[in-house]
Amino acid sequence: MTTEATPLLIVGGTGRIGRALRRQDTAFEAAHLRPIWQSRAQTPGFMAWDILAEQCPAGAARGVVLCLAGVIRGGPTELARNEALALAACSAAAEQGARHVFLASSAAIYGPSDSALSEQARPAPPGPYGAAKLMMERAAARVARDWHRADGPGLTILRIGNIAGFDALLGGMIPGTPVWLDPVEGQRGGPVRSYIGPLTLGAVLAQLMGLAATGKRLPRVLNIAAAPAVSMADLLVAAGADWGYGQPDPAVVPRVELDTGLLRRLVDMPAQAGQAAALVAEWRSMAE
Length: 288
Known about the structure:
Order of helices and strands: EHHEEEHHEHEEEEEHEEHEEHH
Shape: globular
Number of strands: 14
């Protein structure tokens, strides 16, 4: 006798993280998950749903829900849609009796730190995008408190680090144009960040969704990155970029490193996943 695979509604499935997840068919099958890819517009292979204007199609949100939909840039009105999108996904999950909801947030909610930032670190977003994601997190936490009293879905906020190739450094490279890196006094290699490759990210998310489908209790907040943190200069060298140091920028954040101990106790990740060469290789593989 076979059991029905758990529906996994992926809101914002047409985006760049969605592309990485769509390469994880084997991981979804192993976790007994059935992905439902959402798009606001009619798109072959996707479920059309305008999340801010329509009710979620019946049954789509009854298993596990992953909300990747969000706004990266714009003014206060545009960035405030991050909260509205997340709450709409939460409403659909609660209405249809979902087991668990994952909301994509960002390491941008953290400020600079000399040591690795755990999920309990005090948020201090240095920019408007991080501030908007923090507002989204807080709104979702208020909803989750009501869920807890009513035996509703579980909730996990995913604070995702820099994604190789989806970032301003590697993703912003233009052939034939040198890259000028912000120097950091007393720190070799310029700014240091916690990164994850797009394929490793997809595999990690698939594993987490699988755990949620089995009813495993998961943390309310979870840092998502590979270890160790990497310097931007090392990434540029691995990418074979033409680069050099620019003028000092007093606004540059020297280091944002995520503590990934909690994540590594939950999922498997290649030991070399955080190395510059591996990150660059994953970025380039997305174009194949």
